[in-house]
Amino acid sequence: MLATVLLVKLGVWQLERAEFKRDWMAQLEARGEQPLAWPLGTVELAGYRLSVSGHWLPERALLLDNQTLDGQVGYRWLVPIEIEPAQPWLLVDLGFVPAPVRRNELPALPELPPFSHVSGRLYQPGVNRLAAQLLPESGAVTRIQALEWPALSTLWQHEVVPALLWLKQPSELGFARPWRPINLAPEKHQAYALQWFSLAVACVLISLTLAWRGRLHRRDQADNLG
């Protein structure tokens, strides 16, 4: 009985997550029509459009580990851009880079122009609670496990905007970068909810079957004693 209750609660939680994701996607859609001005304030940044001009800092480039696209495993190539020396750096998402076969190898990355006008949408990647720390690995390009903004500012000794700019223009820079501001769509959560509810129904049916068989067994024992 306890297992059934737990499974039902898990199903309800997945339905709540689906509703939350629907609301969040609607908010992002509305924000996509609203541009922000630089410098950015302290408002919630995710989803808004932004256009800025600045100098690339390729020596500070990052490879965000454990990313996937169309079944391939790889990295997100992230490079900060400096709009003004005294202002926070803006980290730009230049797309998905497939990982080499060997872990000790890093992908080849193209050169960036010294200066660009960039435009796109701001977003904040989801956090994997099992890998929420920056954990930088120094090399030709620094590999990180998560975007931990305070730790990144400490690493660079410079303030960083706590959001990524998903680059729309110039489109020729970087690699493939489909706009996916959420990790799991509402439909996925609904499918998980159906699985949990199905398991709950299965538990109930198994419990009823076992109870019925036990009743028949006790009746047979009573008949034999009689």
TrEMBL record:
InterPro entries for the chain: Surf1/Shy1
TM segment ranges: 193-212
Subcellular location: Cell membrane
Topological relation to the membrane, as annotated: Multi-pass membrane protein
Keywords annotated in UniProt: Cell membrane, Membrane, Transmembrane, Transmembrane helix
Main location (coarse class): membrane
Entry coiled-coil feature ranges: none
Pfam families membership: SURF1
Family: Belongs to the SURF1 family.
Name by which UniProt lists this protein: SURF1-like protein
The species this protein was found in: Ferrimonas pelagia
